[in-house]
Design a protein that fits this description.
- The protein is α/β, with parallel strands linked by helices.
- It has a single domain, classed as Metal-dependent hydrolases (TIM Barrel, Alpha-Beta Barrel).
- It has an 8-stranded parallel beta sheet with strand order 1-2-3-4-5-6-7-8.
- Helix 8 runs parallel beside helix 9.
- The model has no long low-confidence stretch (mean pLDDT about 95).
- One of its GO terms (molecular function) is carboxy-lyase activity.
- Keywords: Hydrolase, Lyase.
- One of its GO terms (biological process) is secondary metabolic process.
- This is Metal-dependent hydrolase.
C-alpha cells in the first residue's frame, strides 16, 4: 500500500507529499446549501486531509457578480495567503477589460477562471479576447469549465481555442465530466501540449485518472476537487487509491500545478 493511502486507513493527515488543489471555490452558492464554505471551514478539511494549498474562485464570481466575487476571492486569499491563491474570474458580459485591469497585477491572483456554461457564452467567443491576450502576456494559466455536449464549453471549444492560442496554458476543468468527455479531453490534450487535464467531477474514477496519465503524462494532469461545491475527499481518494506510481501521484497531486504556476502562490 502506498503511504498516502495508508494515512487514510490510519485516519491521520498525510505528510508524504505537497498536495495542491487546482480547482476550488469559496463562499455560498445561490442554488443549494454548502456547509462551511468560508476560509476557516475549508482549512479544517484541508488540514484533516493534508492538503497544503488550494487555488480558488468565489462562487459569487463564477455565478452572479464577477466584480464583487473577485473582491471576495481576494479577501479570502488575504486571510490565509500561505494556503490559498485566487483565480481571477472573467464574465464576458461584465467588463472583462476592467476586471483584468483591476486585479491582474494583484499577487493574490495566479490564474484566470472561466465558466462559459454559467455565463451563457461560448469559450470561442470574441468577448474572451482580452483573456487570451492577458494570459499570453502574463503566463497565467486559464481554468475553464468543460462539459461534453455543452453549447458553450464542449471539448471542441477547448480544441479551437488551444489551436488559436498555442502560447496559453488551458486547464480543462472536469476534463469534460462524462465518460465521453474524458475520452474527448484526452484526444484534445494529445493535440495540444498546453492543454492540461483537471480531474474533479461526479462521474470519473481512479481508473480514468490513471488512463489520463498513461495517455498524456503526469505532467499534463492535475488534481482538483471543486471543493467545497464537491467534497475534496472524494476527488482526493480517487488518486490516493489509484494504480498510479508514487512519482505520478506526487505530480498529479501538486507537482504539476506548482510548475504551471511558476512560483506564484502554490
Amino acid at each position: 500500500m502506498n503511504r498516502l493511502a495508508q494515512a487514510v486507513w490510519e485516519r491521520r493527515p498525510q505528510t508524504v507529499t505537497r498536495i495542491v488543489d487546482a480547482h476550488a471555490h469559496a463562499g455560498p452558492y445561490s442554488v443549494f446549501f454548502i456547509p462551511d464554505p468560508d476560509a476557516a471551514g475549508m482549512l479544517r478539511v484541508m488540514d484533516r486531509c493534508g492538503v497544503a494549498h488550494a487555488v480558488l474562485s468565489s462562487h459569487l464570481a463564477i455565478q452572479l457578480d464577477a466584480a464583487a466575487g473577485n473582491a471576495a476571492t481576494a479577501a479570502i486569499v488575504g486571510q490565509a495567503p500561505d494556503r490559498f491563491s485566487g483565480y481571477l474570474t472573467v464574465n464576458p458580459w461584465q467588463d472583462p477589460d476592467g476586471e483584468l485591469a483591476r486585479w491582474g497585477d494583484d499577487p493574490r491572483f495566479v490564474g484566470i477562471k472561466l465558466h462559459p456554461d454559467l455565463h451563457d457564452y461560448p469559450l470561442t467567443g470574441a468577448r474572451y479576447a482580452p483573456v487570451w491576450e492577458f494570459a499570453a502576456a502574463s503566463r497565467f494559466p486559464v481554468l475553464t469549465h468543460t462539459y461534453s455536449g455543452s453549447p458553450y464549453n464542449d471539448l471542441r471549444h477547448v480544441d479551437e481555442v488551444a489551436a488559436r492560442h498555442p502560447g496559453v496554458t488551458l486547464l480543462a476543468g472536469h476534463s469534460g465530466v462524462t465518460p465521453l468527455g474524458i475520452d474527448q479531453s484526452i484526444e484534445v490534450a494529445k493535440r495540444h501540449e498546453r492543454v492540461i487535464l483537471e480531474v474533479c467531477g461526479s462521474y470519473n474514477s481512479g481508473a480514468d485518472i490513471v488512463r489520463m496519465v498513461r495517455e498524456v503524462g503526469a505532467d499534463r494532469v492535475v488534481y482538483g476537487s471543486d471543493f467545497p461545491f464537491i467534497d475534496l475527499r472524494m476527488s482526493l481518494g480517487r488518486i490516493l487509491f489509484s494504480q498510479l506510481t508514487d512519482e505520478e501521484r506526487a505530480a498529479v497531486l501538486g507537482g504539476t500545478v506548482t510548475g504551471l504556476l511558476g512560483g506564484r502562490g502554490a
